[in-house]
Specification:
- The chain is α/β, with parallel strands linked by helices.
- It folds into three domains: 39 residues, no CATH class; 152 residues, Rossmann fold (3-Layer(aba) Sandwich), CATH 3.40.50.11180; 73 residues, Penicillin-binding protein 1b domain (Penicillin-binding protein 1b fold, 2-Layer Sandwich), CATH 3.30.2060.10.
- The protein contains twelve helices and 14 strands.
- The chain has a six-stranded mixed sheet, with helices on one face. The protein has a four-stranded parallel sheet with strand order 2-3-1-14, sandwiched between helices. Strands 4-13 form a two-stranded antiparallel sheet.
- The N and C termini lie far apart (50 Å).
Length: 309
C-alpha cells in the first residue's frame, strides 16, 4: 500500500486536465476491446456496466475519437441528456457534438412550441444531411417521439448559397417567400428575411445566428453571420444552407431513427424505459387537451411514431 499526503493528492488532482484524464481512460484495456467490437458488423449489442457520474462521458468521448461512425446517445430525459451533452462538449468540444431536443417547451399535451428547440432540431437534420463525417447526437425519448422531415423533403426545402456564385437576388427572395419566410425591415427571429439594396439578411431555422449576404451585381460577394442585437458580424462563411421551418406544411415524415445513417451506433441507458416513454408521449398527443392546443395554434395534428424492435 502506498500512502500519500493530502497536499500531494490535491496537487495531482488540480493539475490533471481533461485531456490527461481522457488519456488515462483510453489506456484501459476495456476501451480498446469496446472500440474493436463497435467495428464488428456481427456485433449488434454491447453492455457496459459500472459507469457512473461523468465516467460514461469520458469513455464515450474516447470512443468518438477512434470510431469512424456516428453516435446517437439516448438518455432518460431532458435534464439527463443536457448533463451528458455538457460533459461531452467539455471534453471533445461542440463542433461535432449536437443536441436534439423536443420541439415543445413543456409536455407535448400543452402544444407550446419552442423556437430555439426547433432551430436545434433543424440544425441536427441539416448537419446529418450535408456531411458524411461522423457526428454525435445527444437526445431523449420525448424528442425521438416526434417525427422529422424525410431526407428527400429536406433537400427540396434547402437553399444553398456560396461565395462567388452567380444568382439573381429576385430568385432568392422568391424562394424565401415560397419557403414561408416573412419579409421584414430587420430580421430578429428565424423565418425572416430583409432586403436592403445589395444586401439580403436571412434567419435560417438551421442556424443560431442570421446570415448577411452581400451581392456585387448577381455575384455573392460575401456571406457573414451576425448578432441580432448589435448587427455586428461574427464569422465569414464560404457557403450556407438556408432551411425554413420544417414543422409546417411538410410532406413525407419519418422517425429520426430512420433519418440517421444505418451504420450509426445507438447508445441507450434503458431501452425499456425508452419504449415506455415514447408510448406515453404518443398517448399525451392523443389527449383532448393536446388536440385543443394544436387547434388553437392553428397547427395540424402532431405526428408521432413508436419505433419497435
Amino acid at each position: 500500500m502506498q500512502v500519500y499526503s493530502y497536499s500531494e493528492v490535491k496537487k495531482q488532482i488540480v493539475f490533471m486536465n481533461i485531456s490527461e484524464l481522457q488519456s488515462l481512460y483510453a489506456k484501459h484495456p476495456g476501451i480498446g476491446a469496446t472500440a474493436k467490437l463497435l467495428e464488428e458488423s456481427s456485433v449488434t449489442k454491447i453492455f457496459l456496466g459500472g459507469l457512473c457520474a461523468s465516467s460514461a462521458a469520458l469513455i464515450f468521448s474516447t470512443l468518438l475519437k477512434s470510431s469512424k461512425k456516428s453516435f446517437v446517445f439516448i438518455l432518460g430525459d431532458l435534464e439527463e441528456a443536457g448533463y451528458f451533452y455538457h460533459d461531452l462538449t467539455q471534453i471533445n468540444g461542440s463542433d461535432k457534438i449536437l443536441f436534439f431536443p423536443s420541439s415543445y417547451r413543456r409536455a407535448i399535451k400543452y402544444g407550446q412550441k419552442d423556437a430555439a428547440n426547433e432551430i436545434l432540431r433543424t440544425e441536427v437534420l441539416s448537419r446529418l444531411q450535408k456531411t458524411e463525417e461522423p457526428l454525435c447526437v445527444v437526445t431523449y425519448p420525448d424528442a425521438l417521439a416526434e417525427k422529422v422531415v424525410s431526407r428527400n423533403e429536406l433537400t427540396d426545402k434547402t437553399l444553398k448559397l456560396q461565395v462567388g456564385e452567380q444568382v439573381d437576388t429576385g430568385f432568392i427572395t422568391e424562394v424565401l417567400y415560397n419557403y414561408g419566410f416573412e419579409r421584414v425591415d430587420y430580421v430578429y427571429e428565424p423565418g425572416q428575411y430583409a432586403v436592403r439594396g445589395s444586401i439580403i439578411d436571412v434567419f435560417s431555422f438551421s442556424s443560431e445566428y442570421p446570415y448577411r449576404i452581400d451581392f456585387f451585381g448577381d455575384e455573392v460577394e460575401s456571406i457573414r453571420s451576425f448578432e441580432v442585437d448589435t448587427q455586428l458580424s461574427k464569422e465569414k462563411k464560404a457557403n450556407i444552407s438556408i432551411v425554413p421551418e420544417l414543422t409546417k406544411g411538410v410532406g413525407e415524415e419519418v422517425s429520426f431513427l430512420d433519418f440517421i445513417p444505418e451504420e450509426t451506433i445507438l447508445g441507450t441507458k434503458d431501452f425499456l424505459w425508452l419504449r415506455e416513454r415514447i408510448q406515453a408521449v404518443h398517448d399525451e398527443a392523443l389527449s383532448p387537451q393536446a388536440i385543443i392546443a394544436q387547434e388553437q395554434d392553428g397547427q395540424e395534428y402532431v405526428n408521432l411514431e413508436l419505433k419497435a424492435d
